[in-house]
């Protein structure tokens, strides 16, 4: 009886003492959490690498980040376009280097990225190189939708999936091994959730990137690397406006300049998924979550898919 009373009393003191000790710990954790958020908001990446930086979203992001004190590295295939963006960024006061590389060329790309990192750690890598040229033409003799080029399947996947992984994984590994950390943003697309029939290969590549970025974020959290997925909707970009193959019944919404601003702000807050315009993202994500019969009826009715008599091969 006495033993039980002493045991209960000791246990009570232990529990009370533990609760008291938790108070300063809770305050300390709260303080550091607030401090981390303040630092995160004020911290700006200094060395930034953008693949696909010669046009469209990549160019808009380069111009958004270009300012005194920032070191920009732009990677793209077109030397002339890179030079044009380089001149614009220089006028904004940043230090800029351009690299004419095809991201599907794994050896050259990895060497360039590692050389950049050795010179100074990369604070932010934006993997956005890709292409949207898998529009399908109709074979009038057989009524089939066929690719415009025979190599379109492999080329689209090489650029949009393999090229992105060629970009991301070497830097992810070196960030992990160095302990410096960093941030990697992967540009997917809302069409990775649901998209137009005549962009079947593009949609598949973006679906792969959406999943890749989502899962890589969990791996990055273990070693202090921030991974973010960017899923733009339909925006007013030179690609969408000038491409005569782009479906004319598509509503084109959103400013590419506002998109760049949203991406920059959201990356500073380490948001896991960055979308613009948001209502488009919510719409396609919501439709993609419906049962297949309802999903196909809705998408067909708004012109995203061809009528039933058209076959895709």
TrEMBL record:
Molecular function terms from GO: oxidoreductase activity
Transmembrane feature ranges: 12-32
Keyword Cell inner membrane: no
Source domain of life: Eukaryota
Coiled-coil region list: none
Record SUPFAM superfamilies: NAD(P)-binding Rossmann-fold domains
UniProt KW keywords: Membrane, NADP, Oxidoreductase, Transmembrane, Transmembrane helix
Pfam families with a match to the protein in the record: adh_short
GO cellular component, one term: cytosol
Family indicated by similarity: Belongs to the short-chain dehydrogenases/reductases (SDR) family.
Annotated protein name in UniProt: NAD(P)-binding protein
Species of origin: Basidiobolus meristosporus CBS 931.73
């Amino acid at each position: 009886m006495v033993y039980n009373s002493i045991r209960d009393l000791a246990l009570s003191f232990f529990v009370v003492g533990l609760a008291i000790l938790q108070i300063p710990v809770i305050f300390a954790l709260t303080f550091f959490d607030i401090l981390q958020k303040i630092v995160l908001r004020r911290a700006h990446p200094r060395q930034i690498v953008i693949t696909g930086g010669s046009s469209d979203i990549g160019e808009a992001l380069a111009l958004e980040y270009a300012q005194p004190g920032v070191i920009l590295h732009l990677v793209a295939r077109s030397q002339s376009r890179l030079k044009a963006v380089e001149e614009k960024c220089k006028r904004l006061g940043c230090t800029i280097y351009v690299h004419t590389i095809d991201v599907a060329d794994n050896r050259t790309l990895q060497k360039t990225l590692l050389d950049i990192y050795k010179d100074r750690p990369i604070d932010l890598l934006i993997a956005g190189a890709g292409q949207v040229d898998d529009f399908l033409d109709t074979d009038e003799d057989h009524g089939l939708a066929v690719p415009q080029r025979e190599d379109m399947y492999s080329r689209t996947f090489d650029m949009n999936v393999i090229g992105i992984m060629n970009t991301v994984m070497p830097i992810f590994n070196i960030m992990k091994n160095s302990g410096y950390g960093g941030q990697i943003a992967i540009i997917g697309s809302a069409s990775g959730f649901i998209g137009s029939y005549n962009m079947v290969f593009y949609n598949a590549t973006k679906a792969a990137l959406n999943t890749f970025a989502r899962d890589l974020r969990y791996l990055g959290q273990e070693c202090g690397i921030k991974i973010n997925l960017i899923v733009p909707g339909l925006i007013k970009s030179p690609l969408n406006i000038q491409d005569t193959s782009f479906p004319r019944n598509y509503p084109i919404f959103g400013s590419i300049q506002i998109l760049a601003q949203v991406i920059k702000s959201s990356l500073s807050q380490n948001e896991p998924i960055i979308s613009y315009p948001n209502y488009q993202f919510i719409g396609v994500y919501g439709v993609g979550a419906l049962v297949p019969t309802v999903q196909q009826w809705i998408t067909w009715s708004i012109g995203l898919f061809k009528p039933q008599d058209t076959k895709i091969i």
